Amino acid sequence: MIRLRSIVFNTLFYANLILRMIILAPYYFVVPRKRAYRIPKNWAKSSTWLMEKIVGTTFEIEGLENIPDGGYILSPKHQSFWDTFALLPYLNDPVYILKRELMWIPLFGWYAAKQKMIPVNRGARGKVMAGVMSQTKDEMRNGRQLIIYPEGTRRPPGADPVYKYGIARLYRDLDVPVVPVVMHPGLFWPRRTTLRFPGHFRVRILPPIMPGMDPDAFFDKLLADMETASDELLIETVRNNPDLPVPASAETRLKALGAGDLVHKRR
Known about the structure:
13% strand; 7 strands
């Protein structure tokens, strides 16, 4: 049943994405940028609705009161395609720094360009990166929210953290608060598989780290705050979803946290 529901969901998820981009393109590219943002935000809502109704996966968000006004850096855990879009409806005017190759994708790249997403060549140095930083500062001055995944790429739930120091440089140079976000959607929408699993999980928005700290101290605090909260949520999520399959990375972490009984009960 899970496999069938996953097939139905995946089919409708991508059909919903492609058809919306095609049908709504005339409106999207004519109206002002911020008004056009309603289209991807509504798509995000419809996608989480499809996942709830077809797969049986639900979520709740804690800590919305921790989101400051104006510009800030949102620093989420990155485990799944889910966390690249599901938070959009809760943010005012987010902007991403993304691989320049994504901008070359028909329709998607055009939609991203309309929202002034910031493309970057990951192998670039010097003047190119200075230009990226200049563009980022311009967008932040307009009160936008920069979404940056501190680990850089998707990581399986419970995996050892590999945070990139680049977020500390952004924190220093942009001089805005950083809002950490932890969650475990990777347990329900795992990477490298088409399976989707039912259950319920929480997204936890932590108190912002205000500007002005030494970058090294900030980096240590960000890692400590996020990993402590992530461990708490991992235990909670696995305990509250007894039928959920747990990947090896999460099993190892649960055992290290003294919660190995949650794994043994499933066998």
